[in-house]
Backbone:
């Protein structure tokens, strides 16, 4: 038999679908005996048989949309088997649709695009919402949220499906409203009505109707020189009201083909971001400002472009040290140069500007020089005081240049200035008076003394030569006694000197340099001749020819102590060499006379015997020199009866013969000379002290 039942899809398990026992015409109590059982055609078991009640029950909740999808009808086919006798019954269960599903769009958000130049009436198709329910429970209509520019149009396809479309009713302007947000609602025909919504976003596509605009079109940037490479100079502020490629701006430098801008070597431009950065060191001294032209072009079709003008002004920083240029240096300079003499011409240069380029020159204050400004950035180094090569033969002059920047930068240059000698110093003896001693009878060429002089000048101005001056103080020119080595100042004797003739010499020595004009100075060397025992004593009285004897008579009755006579002798030497002593030369016989050792007096030592008529005496006069020299005289003493003891008669001295007078004069001159020499020596010693 064929049984047919229907059941709504939303019934719970245990729901009674149909009365099998009644519809099959079988007693309920026999169902168990006949082993009534259900055989489902599907894999999943949705139903079960209640043998006690004889009814068909739901075993699980049914979902029509899952079982049959969008099929207009949904039926499940079952088989019932009974035994005794074996019978097979077919059961068809219709699953009835219930409005248990709300309409649903394939996507919760719908993205649409429309060009801003689209004409009113332009249609934008929308996706159809889905509702698993069938019949009146399926989608009934669509609704669109209110909009000034868009409206909803619903078309019905041949299969009855409603197709929603958005219709443009008013022209668009993307620059005013770039995006429109709408809500599309799908409503089904169930009771109660169920709905589903989708957000509709309509993007207004840009049309390239706006050029890029630079704000501001002309700008100025201040930038310090020497900033690191890669420093951001500026970022161009360019706007394009379009979007997409139409608003995507590319940047490039605007240069002339004939004269490409120098700035392109110093600055880089990011074509995408519009950032301008340095790509090389900037030097204010090379250029203080740069004019940069930038082209901003969008990617629309046709492309539109705008222009930006940027002036980059560099701020000078004190990055350059002053330079010192020695244009001319007059070296050496004469030490007698007058104050104000130009020594050097100095130029300064500083590539910086303003205060950074203002340079001041300095030199040490203790130097005898000063700086005089000739004209801008040029100076003259001149003498400010007297120069003296003997104090300073040269100067290390350090010129320091300092700018007025902050912080200051300085440079210094040192050069050596040599001072040329001028013959402005006369030679100087170590002493204006010197004393020397020389033995008499020294061989010619004997070194007497070496004078020494110095001259603080240099070169030929300090080359000295010595000479002896004839000042006429001696009767004979001094050059006949002495000579001098003109190079080293050593004084030599020209001939042997005789103390007895000249005891002291004043030797005037002149030293002269080789400068032009030559300068000189003098000194006096007192040369004292030292005595040598070269003169034997000379017997003045009695004066007898050589080989003869002096005869002297004495009274016969003369008593002991009687002065017989006196030997008078002189020695041309001086000092110890002139100290004389008297003595009798030895005799074999004893003589009644004696001689005073110092005075030379011969006296009677004992009374004469009558048998002694005469006596022969040899008196020796000896000096105290080394070796000792002597002279002797023979005196014959005879006894005379009528002789009177009268010393003057006994001496029998003639009245001052010319020879005796000359000898006495020589003695006086010798004493006076010795006194004068002593006074001179004392005076020299006192002066030197």
Residues:
């Amino acid at each position: 038999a064929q049984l047919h039942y229907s059941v709504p899809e939303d019934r719970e398990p245990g729901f009674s679908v149909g009365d099998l026992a009644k519809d099959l015409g079988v007693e309920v109590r026999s169902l168990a005996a006949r082993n009534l059982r259900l055989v489902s055609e599907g894999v999943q078991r949705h139903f079960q048989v209640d043998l006690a009640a004889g009814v068909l029950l739901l075993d699980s909740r049914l979902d029509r949309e899952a079982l049959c999808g969008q099929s207009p009808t949904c039926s499940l086919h079952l088989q019932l088997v009974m035994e005794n006798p074996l019978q097979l019954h077919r059961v068809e269960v219709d699953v009835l649709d219930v409005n248990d599903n709300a309409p649903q769009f394939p996507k919760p958000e719908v993205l649409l695009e429309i060009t801003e130049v689209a004409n009113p009436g332009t249609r934008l198709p929308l996706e159809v919402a889905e509702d698993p329910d069938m019949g009146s429970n399926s989608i009934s209509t669509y609704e669109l949220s209110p909009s000034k520019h868009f409206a909803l149009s619903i078309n019905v396809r041949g299969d009855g499906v409603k197709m929603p479309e958005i219709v443009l009713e008013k022209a668009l302007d993307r620059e005013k409203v770039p995006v429109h947000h709408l809500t599309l609602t799908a409503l089904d025909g169930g009771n109660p009505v169920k709905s589903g919504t989708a957000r509709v976003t309509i993007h207004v596509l840009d049309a390239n109707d706006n050029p890029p605009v630079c704000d501001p079109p002309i700008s100025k940037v201040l930038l310090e020189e020497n900033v690191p490479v890669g420093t951001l100079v500026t970022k161009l502020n360019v706007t394009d009201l379009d979007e997409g490629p139409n608003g995507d701006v590319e940047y490039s430098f605007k240069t002339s083909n004939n004269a490409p801008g120098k700035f392109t070597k110093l600055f880089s431009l990011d074509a995408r971001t519009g950032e301008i950065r340095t790509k090389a060191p900037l030097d204010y001294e090379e250029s203080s400002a740069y004019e940069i032209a930038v082209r901003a072009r969008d990617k629309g079709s046709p492309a539109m472009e705008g222009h930006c003008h940027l002036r980059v002004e560099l701020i000078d920083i004190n990055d350059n040290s002053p330079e010192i240029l020695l244009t001319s240096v007059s070296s050496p300079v004469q030490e007698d140069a007058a104050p104000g003499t130009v020594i050097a011409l100095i130029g300064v240069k500083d590539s910086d500007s303003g205060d950074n380029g203002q340079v001041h020159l300095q030199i040490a204050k203790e130097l005898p020089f000063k700086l005089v400004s000739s004209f801008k950035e040029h100076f003259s180094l001149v003498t400010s005081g007297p120069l003296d090569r003997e104090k300073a033969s040269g100067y290390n002059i350090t010129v320091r240049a300092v700018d007025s920047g902050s912080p200051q930068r300085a440079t210094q240059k040192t050069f050596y200035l040599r001072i040329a000698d001028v013959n402005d110093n006369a030679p100087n003896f170590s002493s204006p008076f010197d004393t020397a001693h020389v033995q008499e009878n020294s061989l010619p060429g004997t070194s007497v003394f070496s004078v020494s002089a110095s001259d603080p000048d240099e070169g030929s101005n300090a080359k000295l030569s010595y000479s002896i001056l004839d000042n006429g103080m001696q009767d004979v020119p001094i050059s006949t006694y002495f000579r001098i080595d003109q190079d080293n100042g050593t004084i030599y004797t020209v001939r042997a000197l005789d103390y007895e003739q000249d005891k002291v010499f004043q030797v005037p020595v002149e030293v002269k340099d080789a400068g032009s004009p030559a300068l000189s100075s003098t000194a006096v060397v007192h040369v004292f001749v030292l005595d040598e025992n070269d003169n034997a004593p000379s017997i003045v009285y009695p004066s007898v020819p050589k080989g003869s004897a002096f005869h002297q008579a004495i009274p016969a009755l003369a008593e002991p102590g009687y002065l017989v006579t006196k030997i008078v002798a002189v020695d041309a030497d001086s000092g110890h060499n002139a100290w004389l002593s008297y003595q009798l030369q030895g005799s074999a016989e004893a003589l009644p006379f004696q001689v005073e050792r110092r005075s030379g007096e011969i006296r009677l030592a004992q009374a004469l015997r009558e048998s002694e008529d005469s006596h022969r005496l040899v008196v020796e006069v000896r000096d105290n020199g080394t070796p000792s020299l002597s002279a002797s005289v023979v005196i014959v003493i005879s006894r005379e009866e009528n002789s009177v003891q009268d010393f003057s008669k006994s001496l029998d001295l003639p009245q001052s013969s010319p020879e005796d007078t000359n000898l006495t004069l020589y003695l006086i001159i010798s004493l006076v000379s010795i006194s004068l020499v002593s006074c001179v020596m004392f005076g020299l010693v006192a002066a030197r002290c």
